[in-house]
Amino acid sequence: MIKPHGAETLTPLYVSDDAERAGLIKEAEQLPSITVSSGAAASAVMLASGYFTPLTGYMNISEAISVANDMKLLNGLFWPVPIMNIVSEDQLTNEVRSADRIALLDPNVEGNPVIAVMDLSAIETISSAQINHIIEKTFGTTDSEHPGVPAFSDVGDNVLSGPIQVLNYSYFPEDFPDTFRTAVEIRADIAERGWEKVVAFQTRNPMHRAHEELCKIAQKEVNADGVLIHMLLGKLKPGDIPAAVRDAAIRAMVQHYFPENTVSITGYGFDMLYAGPREALLHAVFRQNCGASHFIVGRDHAGAGDYYGPFDAQEIFDEISEDALEIEIFKGNWTMWCKKCNEIVMMGDCPHGQDDYFTISGTKQREILAAGEPLPPEIARPEVAEILMEYYQSVA
Amino acid sequence: MIKPHGAETLTPLYVSDDAERAGLIKEAEQLPSITVSSGAAASAVMLASGYFTPLTGYMNISEAISVANDMKLLNGLFWPVPIMNIVSEDQLTNEVRSADRIALLDPNVEGNPVIAVMDLSAIETISSAQINHIIEKTFGTTDSEHPGVPAFSDVGDNVLSGPIQVLNYSYFPEDFPDTFRTAVEIRADIAERGWEKVVAFQTRNPMHRAHEELCKIAQKEVNADGVLIHMLLGKLKPGDIPAAVRDAAIRAMVQHYFPENTVSITGYGFDMLYAGPREALLHAVFRQNCGASHFIVGRDHAGAGDYYGPFDAQEIFDEISEDALEIEIFKGNWTMWCKKCNEIVMMGDCPHGQDDYFTISGTKQREILAAGEPLPPEIARPEVAEILMEYYQSVA
Description:
Two copies of one chain form a homodimer.
Chain A: H1 18-30, E1 33-35, H2 38-48, E2 57-58, H3 61-70, E3 85-87, H4 94-97, E4 101-105, E5 114-119, E6 122-125, H5 128-139, H6 150-153, E7 158-166, H7 172-175, H8 183-193, E8 198-203, H9 209-221, E9 226-232, H10 243-257, E10 263-268, H11 277-289, E11 294-297, H12 312-319, E12 328-331, E13 335-338, E14 343-346, E15 357-358, H13 362-370, H14 382-395
Parallel strand pairs in A: 1-4, 8-9, 8-11, 9-10, 11-12
Antiparallel strand pairs in A: 2-7, 3-7, 4-5, 5-7, 6-7, 13-14, 13-15
Helix pairs in contact in A: 3-5, 10-14, 11-12, 13-14
């Protein structure tokens, strides 16, 4: 199987030894604590799960700038997105300021339980020039309207760096018992299935026929033994379909339209950054960590609005050095129903054009579903459409 | 580009120098002559076209037996099917018996013009044990009902062997000016198109949606720059669709359903042998010679009736030594319309089964077409169905 990124084996930061974890939980009760941002908590879950191997914790400013500028950790290893724990002045008590070890509290779980214990290597103040530089490099914009930028720009100016030990996976195991999986678990599952080549598909949406076909095309093109549908279970943009509905829709699609034992449906606990090309790279890193040999990067991968060109997230893979990643990329184009071909096609794979494609805007789709009408079969499988219809009617 | 079989460059036996060819035509007028079998004439066209590189002419009995037994020429090179010129006692005049060089007359062109001049290395009498052994090894049967066996068993018992110089391509250039191409021409065309990977598809039938999809799947799986649709223009079984109708139907399909400049439609002048696995190997040899990097071998390739198992023609490629061929095989399964998926699928690529597949027997298809009704869109593209309908109505 493909090796983890920059390591021989995964280095999950979850403390799996029960006694050791119990000891840490006890210790944490006595430690100064701080409620971290949702983004920092999500990073803790990714670090805990092995997805962010070989990172050991949160970056300091110089490492974050190195990553922003050169996509390299200070040790030279490829890494595309700064993983930071930034807090505001208000949150930073004197106890925390003077501590070596602190408890990180989870903002996403009621009662804010401890999610991790941190060795506080440094507390640095980041200048607005520095954070804007990091944001500009990471997102290609500092526009505060960008849906991912506020997670960096609006959380404060104190950078807490240092290694962490993670005590739980936040709300993900409880909210998504069938779907949330760590990189360690996915690797083990892939090994057990005996899959050699695995193509991973990132999704934060239910899968329509176009996505089904994109996965099937990619599977064929890379001769994959299996497809890893790997969905984001964290925070989305307002209006996005809730993870549970999406999960059900995806499971219906796989059950009805993929051969048995060719698809693994899993999810990971992270918030969308909408960082386009840089996020596509991060997505590739953690798919390599969970054992996928290939990763599908479609049009406008991890994009939002018009911030990125449709193929920026593909082209960046040609710009990084060849040894940056072991995982290979499958570059997808738009897939959609072609009225002349009478089937789903990938743009460029048939002689027809825009005028021959059958598409319905997301807004229109929501209207159709909210009205209790099924989506046309050119767009969605009936089993998928029904699940979405139920949801939209319930919120209409 | 992939190298020709057992040679650095193609060795077409067509005499391309006009003066030299004129001289040979003149010489042939004085030579003892013999009208060869349709199969031997077809072999001359294949030898002329470079498809049978590096052969220099017809095999003698010991070489034919070596090929039948071990799939090897006497020099050790891989070759799967004996290429022989067998004639009957009646045809063998005393002049031919005593000649060093003879003229071979074409049975398939009116007036039986000279097709080749042959250096007569040997005239051997083949015993019925020998020819039956060759037939058994080549066809897996000696059944005279087998549609390919008579071309070996019913042509006589005199084996004429030796190198040939070929003067024309028989009736193929005149009957199929847009489609008949030599291996030399196809190689040049592939080079001009700049295609590196080319997947070749053998057909003797019009292409239905299932065949279209098989080509598209293969193209994706091997990441081919182009598809070479390479059709047999020679003799078929009675009842098969005439080559001209098939040609028109295939061109309509490509025009309407493949992106521009991704398909080359060509044909070669050879008769079907219906030799199943051995013929699949021969098909692969001459696709390598025309510059294809990959060759599609579907179910029951080059088969007839129940003489071969559905995957025999694929499995034989696993049995030959690894260095026998440079061309790679794409192993296809059945493709057909799945009523549940609402699209063409390759068997095994969806979770549904036989009961969910939409198929119509060839007999039923002919009835539908002869009645002037279109084939259902699940079976054929409307542009293809119309061409076939016109033909079947014209012969009904």
